[in-house]
């Protein structure tokens, strides 16, 4: 069909009811995830979630919620221990979780520079929430082993990369978010 087709334009402007319902469920779950976070914790959550969405595992299997839970648990324990003044790197119990934690930790450490123990406590709170949702999936009932990863992928869409030196003004425009905010 041609790009100027009226039917395609109408379909883009008015998504099917199932897509609208999915967007509303996703929004409800996302709000549940960050419901009582302070500003710093919300920022840590979105930095972490954006990283998880863009993370490409080294192995041939895709990232599953259990890997996210293991990485979040290990990093949360590391930050909790550090906030008490003890430097100890808690390992994840799975190899995939350990690789994710190793990739995520430098980003969180850089984000928290100068934040001290307050940042470490906030990071631990956020990571424990991510671990809890990834393990128990209570708001994601009936979902498969990728439920949280898929939810984050639908809700958080990373912007165009600037690795090639282009700024966003000169790069191709990205597709607008289809998340409906009531």
What does this 3D model show about the protein?
With 182 residues, the protein is mainly alpha-helical. It has a domain at 38-155. The protein has helices spanning 6-13, 17-33, 39-54, 65-83, 95-111, 116-136, 147-155. Helix 4 (65-83) packs antiparallel against helix 6. The chain is elongated.
Short description:
With 182 residues, the chain is mainly α. It has helices spanning 6-13, 17-33, 39-54, 65-83, 95-111, 116-136, 147-155.
List its salient traits.
182 residues, mainly alpha, 7 helices
Topology record:
Elements lengths: L5 H8 L3 H17 L5 H16 L10 H19 L11 H17 L4 H21 L10 H9 L27
Largest sheet data = none
Structural class: mainly alpha
Beta-strand content: under 5%
**Span from first to last CA?**
33 Å
């Amino acid at each position: 069909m041609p790009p100027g087709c009226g039917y395609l334009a109408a379909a883009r402007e008015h998504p099917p009811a199932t897509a609208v319902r999915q967007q509303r469920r996703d929004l409800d779950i996302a709000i549940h995830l960050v419901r009582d976070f302070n500003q710093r914790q919300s920022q840590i959550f979105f930095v972490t979630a954006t990283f998880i969405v863009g993370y490409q595992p080294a192995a041939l299997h895709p990232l599953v919620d259990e890997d996210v839970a293991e990485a979040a648990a290990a990093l949360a324990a590391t930050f909790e221990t550090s906030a008490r003044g003890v430097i100890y790197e808690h390992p994840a119990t799975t190899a995939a979780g350990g690789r994710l934690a190793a990739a995520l930790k430098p980003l969180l450490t850089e984000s928290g520079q100068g934040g001290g123990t307050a940042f470490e406590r906030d990071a631990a709170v956020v990571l424990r929430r991510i671990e809890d949702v990834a393990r128990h999936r209570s708001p994601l009932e009936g979902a498969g082993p990728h439920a949280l990863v898929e939810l984050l992928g639908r809700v958080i869409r990373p912007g165009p990369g600037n690795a090639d030196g282009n700024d966003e003004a000169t790069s191709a425009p990205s597709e607008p978010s289809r998340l409906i905010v009531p």
